[in-house]
Amino acid sequence: MPNPFAPSLAAWYAQHGRDLPWRHPECSSWGVLVSEVMLQQTPVARVVGPWRQWVERWPTPPDLAATTPADVLRQWGRLGYPRRALRLRQTAITLTIIHAGAVPTTPEELATLPGIGPYTAAAVAAFAFGCRVVVLDTNIRRLLARAVTGQALPPPSPRAAERRLAEALLPETAGDSVIWNQAAMEFGALVCTARSPGCADCPVADDCAWRAHGCPPDPFAGQRRAQTWAGSDRQARGLILAALRAAPDGLLAADALALIADPTQARRALAGLLADGLAARQSDWLTLPSLPHLDGNLKA
For the structural domain made of 1-225, what CATH number should be given? Predict the structure, then answer.
């Protein structure tokens, strides 16, 4: 079906799209992949600085593959969800060993990499290689829910009908499809936001089904889970990791878990870090993981 929103959003994006370093023509496909991993569940403003530092330190997959998990976790810092850092290192190892250090060009190949799901594979294929592929992130899902189906917000989890709609609206040419994906994603992030949509500044407001229906409330409000940070196990895990990263000799006394008020939560958080490979135990000490670089699979 023709996409009635694509021309207006393309014009809006040309004027209002943010100048992000991974959107620059000179950015490598590896840089795009790193940005997409870092942006998972993390606002753009928190990613720009760490992304620059990461690609400056490890500009290619072999550079990252040759470092240790401990260095990766220190560099990841406070970005959150640190398992992403370890998976990114595993991806770098796979790219180095199997793909001669190059990033694959198709979403099918990209999806075989460690920690690279369907969304990230599609985004890298589109934004690094200009492929015509559906990129269905939270922002695009919200835009389509409002503009096309008349709902305040999309369902809590993606549904097959959403993908079929996104596929039907994807522009025919690869170049136009990339612009559509970029523009729709940016528009959802900056204007058609979840809590305070800027309808007064919306170039497609006259064609928006949600506005035409009187802006009805979220039909899935009762199905959404509120995630709190303060007092959560995620916060406890983050406190332990921050202490490990800051330890001058890389060692943290096991009794340092007293920094978490609830001893049961402290033990649970530590057990999770150990199970996820984000920390290691040496006698009465805790450390960041320091596994062999590549088990001898790479040249020194």
Answer: 1.10.340.30
